[in-house]
Amino acid sequence: MKTPSLRLKLLAVVILLTMTLGVAVTVQLRTALLRTAGAELDKRSMSIAADLAMRVTDPLLTRNTIDLRDMLLEIPANNPDVRYALVVDGQGRLVAHTFQGGFPRDLLTQRPVQTGDKPDLMILRSDEGPLHDAAAPIVGGLAGYVRVGLTETHLLTSLRQVERLQIVTIVLVGLAALAAAYFWIFRLTRRIQDLSLAASRVGGGDLTALVPPGAPDELGILATAFNDMTRRLAAAGEAVRVKEQARTELLQKVLTAQEEERGRISRELHDEIGQALTGLIVGLKVVRGPEDAASLRDLAAQTLESVRRLSRDLRPAVLDDIGLVAALRRYTEDFTRLHQIEGSLQVVGPEDTRLASGVETTLYRVVQEALTNVARHSGARHFGVVLDLRSPLVQVIVEDDGQGFDPASPSTGMGLVSMRERAALVGGTVTIESRPGGGTTVYVKVPGEEGERAHSDCR
Amino acid sequence: MCRFPRFLLAVALLLAGCGMAPATPVVHLQDLDPTLAAGAPGISPRPVLRVGVAPLLSPRESLLRYGPLIDYLGRRLDRQVELVLPRSHTEASDMVRSGAVQVAVVSSYAYVLGQKEFGMEALAVPVYAGLPTRRAYILVRRYSGIIQFSDLKGHTFAYTDPLSASGRLYPEAMVLGLKEPLDRFFERTIFVSSDDKALEALDQGLVDGAAVDGTMYDEAIRRDPDLQRRLRIIETSEPLGAPPLVVSPRMGSELKRQLQEALLELDQNAVGRSVLNRLRVDRFLKPDPAWYDPIRDLAGHPGGRL
User: Fold this and answer.
1) ipTM (interface predicted TM)
2) Were B57 and a residue from A105, A385, B61, B277 both cysteine, which residue would form a disulfide, CB within 3.0 to 4.6 Å?
């Protein structure tokens, strides 16, 4: 079975309400009118009877039956509601009536008349419908009484007319209301349809689907919320895309850096270790005395030192064994020795702090990169490294008194980019302050992880 | 959702229930009984005594005043007594003559005529204000400028009934006394059938003068004291015998005796006194023919029938 649409349901409710209201009003009005008109008919029958009782007194008492009958016949002629009128004298004899060719005996036998001097009313049922039968005494009942019977035929006819008019009015008004309701419901449900259409488009991946919010009612609020949601979804998708691109680029760079590193190692192996070993071999062929042997031993020792340095550059074992502070200290000392640039490491905070392995490696490599840049490009004579371990945000500052450069210039080298990327991998940032002739300061901020010291203690 | 229509049904039933009525008498208007024609006489198990009351008063007033007397006579004589209200004094007199009524209250003049013509017999005469006689008044409106009877010449005048002593014989005698022709003295005359109607016609300006029975005028003043200031009596007759209660000469002497006894004893018991009270009469007396002599004198003029 097909479920009826919301539009149909709302229309059904409107139709039901209109019809219910119409029927209730019609029934209620009919009842009220019938009651009012019935009471009016009662009053009229009483008044006609009382009036007739006054007028028939003289002709009745003087036995003027012709006048009497004429008077009675006038009554239904002037009042279409009057079905009959009759006069009964003081002895209970029927003196005059408005019937032709006889008299319905029931009217005398079925209707008890109170002999008081007050008019009295009774509703009779007849083959012609209900009768409002009023009896009025003549001369206080001494001379008999008159009776007048009014039918509801006339009344019902006009009632039916009123009813018909009312039904027509209700139907017309109901149709107008229905048309208005249909228009309104159509507008309402169209907004819902728009929403569901947009929702299915968003579900299908089209994040440009927006809904006109319309009036700021519940549906308007829903539409606005939906639009906000779609916009946020689109923004999130864009962020994911950007990050994905960055990741791809980073991977590319890592691979490139790896190749570069390999090339460097290869060059160093070939240029330094290879040459030294070749020198050793050549020296060994022509060794003649103890001086030559001593020279060859020195050469071998130099070669061993080169191999150790190379190894340390590749992966400083101290980092794993003695921690970031000691590793950096050793590296800065090596750097001073190797490049003849004066400088030192200053540590603020507890020196035995151990950070997450990734964080320590990152900081170490960034400092390494920064110092390499100092050695290669700055021409500085002094440098300084500050490691601040006090706050959850670990900060490293590397500064020099070199020639400096313009950070905004596009020629900023590969080294800076790789520093930033390394820091970003552990949620950190790198800021560079420099100007030509004014030295360079590199700020690195990385979130350190509390509890790492205990962790390292366990290890 | 399911409860809503049920609620509507209940409302509809409630509204429909309001129209119900208790059991009512049922009549068949189409079922006509031809034997029940209008005016069909009832059958009385007892002998009927019909009492006619001449239109000294309006039919309604006559019924109200004579009703208790009729009931009283019915019980006293053990008869079905019916009140008959003729439309004129002439008709009342004719009814006595023809036997259509056995007993009647007729005007004094009708009695005088009937006595002479067919032996109409007076049984009792009502005593009003201590007297079995009454005077006739000629009345005009107080500010009409008419201060004596001769001023009425060329004006309109209301008689009560052709057979009334106070309402016709007396004013005609006045005209004749002025040596004026009866048919030209008044500009126009009307017969209004009863004294209260004559007063009404005069009061409302339909006529300029009227002749009424003095007792009727007194009663009218009692009902509407202001009438005294609006009307003026310009002539008063000598005492005339009151309208008597008469019987047909054909009535049996026993019934006549019983009837007379019943009437004359009215003031001797409580029921009778209430009957008299309603009639506004002190009591009934046996008639004295001398009370009616002034009427015979008035009727002896050339226009009269005596």
Assistant:
1) 0.71
2) B61
Rounded Cα distance between A156 and A153, Å, is: 5
Whether chain A has a CB inside 8 Å of the CB on B270: the answer is no
What is the number of other CB atoms lying within 10 angstroms of the CB of residue B72?
Answer: 21
Say yes or no for a CB contact (<8 Å) between B29 and A63: no
Q: What is the pLDDT of residue B36?
A: 66
Closest-CA residue of chain A to B31: A104
Q: Is the pLDDT at B13 greater than 80, yes or no?
A: no
Distance between CA atoms of A254 and A262, rounded to whole angstroms? 12
CA distance A23 to A167: 9
DSSP-assigned states of every residue in A43-63? HHHHHHHHHHHHHHHHHHHTT
Nearest CA in chain A to B81: A91
Does residue B36 sit at the A interface (CB-CB below 8 Å)? yes
Residue recorded with tokens 């126009």? B188
**Does residue A347 belong to the interface with chain B, where contact is any CB pair within 8 Å?**
no
Kindly provide the b/e burial profile for residues A401-425, where b requires at least 16 CB atoms within 10 angstroms of the residue's own CB: bbebbeeeeeeeeeebebbbbbbee
B158, β-bridge pairs: B190, B210
Asked if B32 lies within 8 A of A20 by C-beta distance, the reply is no
Say if residue A248 is exposed, middle or buried (CB neighbours under 10 Å; 0-12, 13-18, 19+): exposed
Q: Specify the DSSP element, H or E, that contains A396.
A: strand A393-400
List, for residues B205-225, the tens digit of each pLDDT value. 999 999 999 998 998 999 999
Picking from B12, B24, B59, the nearest residue to A61 by CB comes out as B59
3-class SS of residue A103? strand
In this prediction, residue B11 carries a pLDDT of 55
pLDDT (tens digit per residue) in A266-325: 888 888 788 888 888 888 888 777 888 888 888 888 888 888 877 777 766 667 777 888
Task: Tell me the mean pLDDT in the region B172-181.
Answer: 90
Residues of B in contact with A92 (CB under 8 A): 42
Window A:365-404, CB contacts with B under 8 Å: none
Three-class SS of A287-302: CCCHHHHHHHHHHHHH
Q: Are B160 and B167 in contact (CB under 8 A)?
A: yes
What is the sign, positive or negative, of the torsion defined by CA atoms of A70, A71, A75, A77? positive
Distance, in Å, from the CA atom of B270 to the CA atom of B301, rounded to the nearest integer, reads: 45
| pLDDT tens profile A323-349 | 888 888 888 988 898 888 899 899 998
Q: What is the pLDDT of residue A412?
A: 57
Asked if B32 is an interface residue toward chain A (Cβ–Cβ < 8 A), one would say: yes
Q: Give chain B positions within 8 Å (CB) of A156.
A: none
Please report the residues numbered 129 through 158 in chain A whose beta carbons come closer than 8 angstroms to any beta carbon of chain B.
130-131, 139-140, 142-143
Give the C-alpha separation, A141 to B136, whole Å: 34
- Nearest residue to A83 via CA among B28, B37, B78: B28
Give A37→chain B minimum CA distance, Å.
Answer: 13
Q: Return the residue of B nearest to A58 by Cα.
A: B59
The shares of helix, strand and coil residues in chain A, as percent rounded to the nearest 5, are 60, 15, 25
